[in-house]
Amino acid sequence: MLFEQSTFQHPARWFNIETSVREKNFGIETYDFVAEKILERISSGDQTAVNDCLDQYGGLVWSLAKRMLPDKNDAEDAVQEIFIEVWKNADRFDETKSSETTFIAMIARRRLIDRLRKTTRQPGQDSLDEMLYEPTGADGREVHTSIEAKRAAKAMNDLRPEQRNVLQLSIVEGYSHSEISEVMGIPLGTVKTHARRGLMEVRNALEADSSRSGKEVSA
Amino acid sequence: MNEVEMKDRLLELLTYKSVFGLDDDESVELDALQRTFPKLVEESNFDETAAAIALSAVTEVEEMPLALKSKVIADASKFFAEEESDEQLTFDKTSRFSQNIKPAVEKTHWSMPPWLGWALAGAACVALIANFWVARIGPNEIVSVTPTPTVTPIAEPSNAEKLQKFLASSKDLVKTAWTDPKDESQNLGEVVWSDEKQQGYMVFKGLQANDAQKEVYQLWIFDETQDEKTPVDGGVFNIGKDGEAIIPIDAKLKVKNPKMFAITVEKPGGVVVSKREKIVALGKV
C-alpha cells in the first residue's frame, strides 16, 4: 500500500505525493501505476514503453513546446529533441523526488529554454493581459494535471502580482529577462529579483503543502 | 566572496537557470559554486518548481500530430539501436576480462564472433602484403599468386543518413531556412549547425544547378567571432540538375553562435574573400 510508505517524511520528497493522492481521490490506481513505471521500463531497455510514453506524455510535451515556441516547425523539432533527452535520461528518474510528469516537464523545459536562448523571440499576437496568469481550469477545460501542478497554481495565485507576472512570462511564455523588462517596463534587476523571490515562495509553499499532506497521511 | 555570499549567489544562479536559462559565463560560475555546495543544489528543487508552474498553466492538452509522433518513434528506434550497438561493443571489449558480466538487454540480433575481427585483420594484412609485392616486384615476375580473401567494404552512410544521425545526436542545433534574397518568400531548403560539434548540414531544394567547370557555390557563415567583412568560409559545393542536395558544412574556422548563412557563386575552387556579387541564398538565424 502506497499510503503506508514513509516517503512523506522528508520535505524534499513533496513531489512524490501525486500517485498516492490520485489513488485516494480518483480511484485510478491501475492507470497511475502503469504511468509511473514508464520511465523505469524505458531505462531497462523495454522499447514497447516508447509508445506508452508518447500516449501518456506526448500531448503534454507538445502543448508545452507550442506554448513556448510559436513557430510550429520549431516546436516540432523541440519535441523530437525532448524525447531523445527523455530516452537518454530515463534512468535518472527518481520517484522519491518527483512524479514522471514533472520529470518529463523538467526535461522539456530545459530543452525549450535552450532553444529560446538561441532564437530572438517575436512576442505573439496575444495581449499582455491575455498572456498573464490564467488560473488552471478557469475556463472549464481543466486537464488532469499532477497534484504538484495544482499546488503550484495555488501558490502562484498567492504571489504578489509582479512576481506572478514575471514567472508567468518567463516560465510559461518563454520570455527572456530583458524582454520581460521591456514588456513590463521595469528594470532588469527588478525582473530578476521578482523571479528569484517568486520562485522561492512557490517552492516553499509546495514543500509546506507536501509536509502537511505527509503528516495527514501518516496520521 | 564569503561563504554566505557564495551560497546566496548559488541560489540566485539556480533560480535564474530554472526560470530563464544561463549564459556561458553564468554557467561556468554556477558549475564552480555547485561543486563547492553540492547539497544546497540537491535540495534546491527549483527545476521541479518551475516545471510544476509550467504544468499548472497547461489547461488543455493538444494531441501530438501523427507525423510528429512517427518522427519521435523513428528517433527512438535509432536511439535504442545505437544504444544496443554501444552496449554490445562494450560487452565484447569487456567480456575478455570479465566473462561473468552479461549485457543488460538480451540481444536477439546476430553479433560478430570475437575471432572474426582478428580473421578480417589477418586478411587485410595478407592483402596489403600482396599489394606491396605486386608494386615492388612487378606482375611479370610473379609466378603464382595465392588468391587473397576479399573483405566487403562497409558502405559509407549517405549524407541523408549522416544528417539524421547528426540531428538526433546534437543538443545545440541552430536551424534556419534558406531563402532567395530576391524573393524572401521562396524557400530553398534549410541549414542546421551545432557549435558543440562544429558540424552542420545544408539541405537544398530548388537551387539552380551549376556548371562546376565555370562556377561553384560557396557557403559563408557570419558569427560572433568574425567581423561581418570576413565571415567564415563554409566550403564549396555543386548542385545537380534536380536542384536538391544535402551538403555537409566544411567550416574553415571555429564557428560560434552563427547569425547568418549565405551562399555565393564563385569561381571553381572558391575564394578566400567573396566580393558578394552573386548571393543566391540567405539563412538568417
Describe this structure as you would to a colleague.
The complex is a heterodimer of chains A (219) and B (285). With 219 residues, chain A is mostly helical. Chain A has eleven helices and no strands. Chain A has helices at residues 17-26, 29-36, 38-43, 49-68, 72-89, 100-118, 128-131, 147-157, 161-172, 177-184, 188-218. In chain A, helix 5 (72-89) packs across helix 6 (100-118) and helix 10 packs across helix 11 (188-218). Chain A starts with 16 loop residues before the first helix and ends with a helix. Chain B is of the alpha+beta class and 285 residues long. Helices cover 40% and strands 20% of the residues of chain B. Chain B contains seven helices and eight strands, in the order αααααααββββββββ. In chain B, the strands form two sheets. Chain B has a four-stranded antiparallel beta sheet, covered by helices on one side. A four-stranded antiparallel beta sheet of chain B has the order 5-4-7-8, with no helix packed on it. The two termini of chain B are 39 Å apart. The relative contact order of chain B is 0.08. The interface between A and B is large, with 77 and 56 residues.
Question: Could you provide a short overview of the structure?
Answer:
The complex is a heterodimer of chains A (219) and B (285). Chain A contains eleven helices and no strands. By secondary structure, chain A is an all-alpha fold.
End-to-end CA span of chain A? 15 Å
Which stretches of chain A are low in confidence, meaning pLDDT under 50 for 5 or more residues running?
1-34, 122-128, 130-144
Q: What's the rounded overall pLDDT mean of chain A?
A: 74
Order of helical and strand elements of chain A: HHHHHHHHHHH
Helix content of chain A: 55-70%
Shape of chain A: globular
Content-based structural category of chain B: alpha+beta
- Order of strands, main sheet of chain B, comes to 1-2-3-6
- N-to-C CA distance of chain B: 39 Å
The value of Rg of chain B in angstroms is 27 Å
Instruction: Classify the helix fraction of chain B into a percent range.
Output: 25-40%
> How many DSSP-defined strands of chain A?
0
The number of distinct helices of chain B, counting runs of at least 4 residues, comes to 7
Beta-strand segment tally of chain B: 8
Q: What structural class do you assign from the helix and strand content of chain A?
A: mainly alpha
Shape of chain B: globular
Task: State the oligomer.
Answer: heterodimer
Which H/E pattern describes the elements of chain B? Answer: HHHHHHHEEEEEEEE
Overall average residue pLDDT of chain B: 78
- Biggest sheet layout of chain A: none
